[in-house]
């Protein structure tokens, strides 16, 4: 968009527009921003749909893990991979704005991992996943995608995954589903992480689960701890059920 297009919005301080949509350059800035956002999301949805077909063709269950920074995604993934490897094909796409620290933690388990750095980007897009999946040469198993730590932006970007899984730790407070409803509405499952810390932080886990269900009545809820191991059996059971469902859908 040429810079002068912003002119009318910046130089006139009327607070409103006298525009009747005759000239493209006089479309209100806010509407133009919405249209550009819509275009980006539409393009992403097209690529996500192709990813979804590609995952089905390769018999891959793709899970998109999202949370605020530090909720425990990587730690949980490491514990999950340790328990699943041996009898399940596994691969991981790791995403961070900077560094390969998480990818190194995953690689230490022996599971193949592809690292994406989004730079200034606040979420992963379907096109990033398409490239990563192509490079991983993966089939017949479970692909975990650890998204950027952010409870807002990743919610709007379909990657072609079978399920979005939101991780919310007991240290974050019961109100997060109400404050970030899009994320909890998009997720099929909420993992309440760091259950071992619950006694130290006055958290009401039942209230946290109830708030998630207020936003999304169909959301699954599992309370677990990567540290103590409690709840991990339920999480592994959920993954096994999701794999079975995916196979039936073929
Ligand atoms: N007490 C406790 N700490 C945890 C647990 N899971 C993760 N952590 C800690 O929380 C911090 C952030 O974890 P990390 O897995 O890097 O979170 P991510 O940013 O969501 O990937 C680290 O210091 C972990 O050791 C848990 O189940 N219990
Ligand atoms: Mg991480």
Question: Would you give an account of this structure?
Answer:
The protein is α/β, with parallel strands linked by helices. A seven-stranded parallel sheet has the order 3-2-4-1-5-6-7, sandwiched between helices. The protein is globular, with a radius of gyration of 21 Å. The longest helix has 29 residues, at 29-57. It has a single domain, classed as P-loop containing nucleotide triphosphate hydrolases (Rossmann fold). α2 packs parallel to α5. It has nine helices and seven strands, in the order ααβαβαβαββααβαβα.
List keywords for this structure.
250 residues; alpha/beta; Rossmann fold; seven-stranded parallel sheet; 17% strand; disordered N terminus; binds guanosine-5'-diphosphate; binds magnesium ion
Overall structural class, as computed from helix and strand content, comes to alpha/beta
Here the CATH topology equals: Rossmann fold
Mean pLDDT: 89
User: Helix content range of the residues, please?
Assistant: 40-55%
Indicate the CATH architecture. Answer: 3-Layer(aba) Sandwich
How widely separated are the two ends?
A: 44 Å
Give the topology, please.
Layout: H1 7-11, H2 29-57, E1 60-67, H3 73-84, E2 90-96, H4 101-107, E3 113-117, H5 126-136, E4 141-146, E5 163-169, H6 176-179, H7 181-186, E6 189-193, H8 205-215, E7 220-223, H9 232-248
Parallel strand pairs: 1-4, 1-5, 2-3, 2-4, 5-6, 6-7
Helix pairs in contact: 2-5
This protein binds guanosine-5'-diphosphate and magnesium ion.
